[in-house]
Write a structure and sequence with these properties.
Blueprint lengths: L10 H26 L4 H29 L28 H24 L4 H28 L2 H33 L1 H11 L2 H26 L10 H18 L9 H26 L4 H24 L1
Helix pairs in contact: 1-2, 1-3, 2-4, 3-4, 5-7, 5-8, 5-9, 5-10, 6-7, 6-10, 7-8, 9-10
């Protein structure tokens, strides 16, 4: 597609781009507000105020355009002109990260400020140049305005509530699937690994079985978690993210106590693997205690009992 150079734009086209840009930015702020309203209501209120400001800018530009060029506004957008940043449509992402939205807003205001300064220098009409310079100053002040809006909307209580919401989302989307994967990988692979180890008494054979069990369990758990729900009703986020986290943590949990069987001495490899299993179970107990509010002793008892039972199963089958 042929893009126009900024220096080739007419004043009519400059105003048309500015009108379209303000309308688009306002809609993006509206999308941010809509996406964040449930989990981050105070930040959503901030973006709603910013949307209203963009609407005021647009109306002033439309009034100037009508005064100079009439009713018809030509269809020309920022993406039709060289030099504008290509924006990733983060406003379409669900769930939307609150920090991502704030960062995008900063970039939008900076780009708008640069555009108005450059547009004013290309404009000969005094009233239009004055309006563009005013808008450039207002965009420059928006960083401070955004801070004032944040102060207004994000009180200490509101920030605490939003931080708690962020923590809950992190639990739902990362910690819970990761913990489920780690537990499954650390516990379910014990039986085939140690059964093969005690049946063959060869480290390399045990390693191959453990590796296959870990990767197979990771793939299985990834699909199981990803297909369990699409996150639209539960708020658990993208099934791709949850499935990926679960699969990777499942594989990691199994690989941890499989790697010691790269040691050629079967006895040493078995002792090291048993020590790794003990560390893994302690880590799982700590994560359950820290993120799932489970008493540490209770979490340790639940995890250790399960791990010991599976280990004994592998040992008994392998030794039979």
């Amino acid at each position: 597609m042929m893009l126009k150079k900024f220096k080739d734009l007419t004043e009519k086209e400059i105003l048309a781009i500015a009108i379209g840009a303000e309308e688009e930015d306002g809609r993006i702020y509206g999308d941010f507000a809509d996406a964040l309203r449930e989990e981050y209501p105070s930040t959503a209120g901030m973006f709603e105020d910013m949307r209203k400001e963009e609407a005021v800018h647009r109306d002033r530009l439309i009034a100037m355009f009508r005064q100079r060029f009439g009713e018809h506004i030509p269809l020309i957008r920022r993406e039709n002109v060289k030099g504008f940043l290509q924006r990733r449509p983060v406003w379409l992402v669900r769930p939307l990260g609150v920090k991502v939205a704030r960062k995008q807003a900063e970039l939008m205001e900076l780009e708008a400020q640069r555009f108005y300064h450059k547009a004013a220098s290309r404009t000969s009409d005094v009233s239009t140049r004055e309006l563009l310079n005013q808008l450039a100053d207002e965009e420059r002040k928006h960083t401070r305005t955004a801070g004032e809006l944040e102060e207004k909307h994000l009180t200490v209580t509101a920030k605490a509530q939003e931080e708690e919401s962020h923590r809950k989302l992190f639990l739902l989307q990362v910690v819970q699937p990761g913990l489920a994967g780690l537990m499954d990988g650390s516990v379910s692979t014990l039986a085939p690994l140690f059964a093969a180890a005690f049946a063959t008494r060869h480290s390399w054979d045990a390693f191959l079985v453990g590796l296959a069990a870990s990767i197979g369990a990771g793939i299985s758990m990834a699909f199981s978690e990803g297909l369990s729900d699409d996150g639209s009703l539960t708020g658990r986020g993208s099934p791709w993210l949850r499935g990926g986290v679960t699969g990777l943590m499942t594989t990691a949990g199994g690989i941890g106590h499989t790697l010691p069987f790269l040691i050629s001495s079967f006895r040493v490899a078995t002792l090291v693997a048993a020590a790794v299993v003990a560390v893994e179970l302690c880590v799982i107990s700590y994560v359950r205690h820290k993120y799932m509010d489970t008493p540490f002793l209770q979490a340790t008892f639940q995890v250790v009992v399960g791990g010991v039972l599976v280990f004994l199963t592998g040992w008994l089958i392998g030794s039979s």
